[in-house]
Amino acid sequence: MPASADEFADLEARLLARQQLQFDALQKRLLLGSASAPEEIDQPFAEYARNFYVTAAVMVCLIALMVYVAFTGGLYGNVSQTASLFIMPFCWTTGFGLVFATLDCEVAGRRAVQLLRASLFSMMLAAPIAYWTSGEQGDAVVMFFSFGLDMILYPWLLNATKEILRMRYQGSLTAQAQFYTMRALKIAGFQLVLSVSAAAQGIDGLETFPRIWATLTFSVTLPMVWMFLIAVFDACAVDGHAAAKLQVTPLQAAAIASCGTLTLSGLAGFVLAEQKHPSKRAASLVMYVMFISTYLCIFFVGRLVCAARKTISGASSAASVKPAGGLDVLGIPGT
Question: Which residues are CB-neighbours of 71 under 8 A, at least 6 positions away?
Answer without folding.
Answer: 129, 133
